[in-house]
Hints:
The protein is of the alpha+beta class and 304 residues long.
Amino acid sequence: MEALVGLPALVLLALLGSGSVKVTSGGRSRLVERLGKYDRELQPGLSIVLPVVEKVVSHESLKERVLDIPPQLCITRDNVSIEVDAVVYWQLLEHSQAYYAVDNLQAAMVNLVLTQIRAEMGKLDLDQTFTTRSEVNELLLRELDEATDPWGVKVTRVEMRDINPSPGVKQAMEAQMTAEREKRAAILRSEGEKEAQLNEARGRAEALVLDARAQKEALLLEAEAQAKQQSVLAEAKSQAALVVAKALSESPQTEEAIRLMLAENWMEMGQRMADSPAGSVLMVDPQSPASLLAALKQFQQGDR
């Protein structure tokens, strides 16, 4: 009879004992209240909780977590409607502080993030929301980390994922980008045509310069050739005159041969004088070779 009475007591004690043993895994935390008052935080491992007297009121992870912020309608400084969503990375540092400071921690964080996003988007123009995204992320991170510090929460990163303007604004932006591309294309075409015309003009100018330079060089070469020719002829005449003079001084018979040559030239000169339309008169002494030479020279100069 006593054995039958002791059996329920042992079963009750076993049930109470199994409920009082708590195993906390790594990276997690349990909060224990004793008689409705916070008592302690259970560390990872095996812990004993007194039945009836003590109670585990919260069991949370201490690892970094991701909070997905749903799309939120915002109005920019230039009165443009946009939808913005974000993702927040956070970690629970003080479990007891978060449990007793705020009710429904994640809902409170979502509302806080949405409020901060609307406030920051209202300070920016539409174009700035696309170009200053990294700066806005850093600003949101500082503000959220400061706001959640009393809750024992550490916000480690904030990323705005999508910024979607309204359909009408999208159409206006596409039209603006199309017009900008057409403008740039027109500018590039005009610059290309201008460059082509400049290159053509430079080519014509360079061709004219080269042509003029070639003509100049040709004229210089021709003048040099004529000058050289005149120099050679003059030198030849000078040499011939020296030879004649030397022959006259060395041999009396040479004078007779020269007189015959001069007479022949005289006859040719007379024929040319007769054929001359204006006519010419030349007074010389046929017996004097020197006189004949001077007359021939004077006639040749006048004939030129």
